[in-house]
Amino acid sequence: MKYSFIIFLFISKFLFAQETPVTFWQNLCEYKTDGTGKSIGLKIKLSIPCQWTQADGERPHVVKKFTYILDTATIIQTLVITKLSQAPSKAELDNQLTQVGLKTLCKDLGVFISSKRIKVDAVDGGEIVFKTIRENPVGTIYGYSILYDFFYKDKIISIIYGLGSANDEKAKTLFENYKTLFRSLSSKTIFLSQWE
């Protein structure tokens, strides 16, 4: 009887310790850029689940990367800041943020699923949902992602939330489960530079 109770506690702890979109949402931390280095003068605040691991970006424009390993899938969020040669005009921005303009942005990313124009913290942007298939030495990885491109002066701030798995159906199902969390996290972005 004593051993049965111990086994029950162990199994319960394992089952109920699994993270869900809700548990991530209930335990948020802040990540801020200070304007130095790859943030090229911009100060931004992101809300990130505290359980996600953060690392500096390895590529030139990748400011930060956040990851979390699920059972057979991985969540990856990246913050990318790119400097343009000049700030887009209102007409150029309006054109870029149309359905056609956002779909064109997606052509080098993967298979377009959907897009829409958004505004977060008074900054115009676009949301693009897309699918990727990557061949790796370990096998095929199926990914589903939401890309947020925000246009602030002469910079594009890209926040990408992705979920990948070796199983396409698993990746798609998990992405659908986590999509609301990703959208909610993106809506909490604060562009601190504009309020200084």
- The helix content is 25-40%
In the predicted model, the low-confidence regions spanning at least 5 consecutive residues are 1-17
Total number of helices = 5
Q: Could you tell me the radius of gyration in angstroms?
A: 19 Å
Reading the helices and strands in chain order gives: HHEEEEEHHEEEEH
Characterize the structure shown.
- The protein has helices at residues 2-16, 21-25, 90-96, 99-106, 168-187, and strands spanning 28-32, 45-49, 53-56, 62-69, 73-83, 111-120, 123-136, 139-152, 155-165.
- The protein has one domain (21-195): Protein Transport Mog1p, Chain A.
- By secondary structure, it is an alpha+beta fold.
Write a compact overview of the structure shown.
The chain is α+β, with helices and mostly antiparallel strands.
Keywords:
disordered N terminus; seven-stranded antiparallel sheet; two-stranded antiparallel sheet; alpha+beta; 9 strands; Protein Transport Mog1p, Chain A; 5 helices; 28% helix; globular; 196 residues
Write the layout of secondary structure elements.
Elements: H1 2-16, H2 21-25, E1 28-32, E2 45-49, E3 53-56, E4 62-69, E5 73-83, H3 90-96, H4 99-106, E6 111-120, E7 123-136, E8 139-152, E9 155-165, H5 168-187
Antiparallel strand pairs: 1-2, 3-4, 4-5, 5-9, 6-7, 7-8, 8-9
